[in-house]
Design goal:
This protein has about 110 residues and is mostly helical. The protein is built from five helices and no strands. About 0% of the residues are buried.
């Protein structure tokens, strides 16, 4: 039994170190997100679906409060929109009336 544990540890720890060092999990998850975005009718969806399911299960077990807060925020209605901006159609005339004409010499 001790031999099985030692062999498992000898294989698992270097493999985990290499996978962590190569940043494979975020790249795998990014690939799975890209593969599942077009929909389930593509061939890439089926190998990517288990990756997404495992990632979601991981989030629900490791970070349940954060995940629940995200779900609640997704379900909230969007904030009310501000009124649309209105522009004065006569803005150019009003602007030229406010700016003094510096072409005329006022001293002489």
């Amino acid at each position: 039994m001790l031999t099985v544990i030692a062999v498992t540890a000898a294989v698992t720890f270097p493999a985990g170190y290499l996978l962590r060092d190569q940043n494979a999990f975020p790249r795998l998850l990014s690939w799975a997100e890209d593969a599942t975005s077009p929909g389930w009718r593509t061939w890439k969806f089926w190998p990517a679906a288990p990756v997404i399911i495992v990632a979601l299960a991981w989030m629900w077990t490791v970070h349940p409060r954060r995940t629940l807060a995200n779900v609640r925020s997704w379900r909230q209605p969007p904030p009310p929109r501000s009124p649309a901006l209105t522009f004065d159609p006569d803005w150019a005339a009003k602007r030229s009336a406010r700016i003094p004409d510096h072409t005329v010499d006022e001293e002489g």
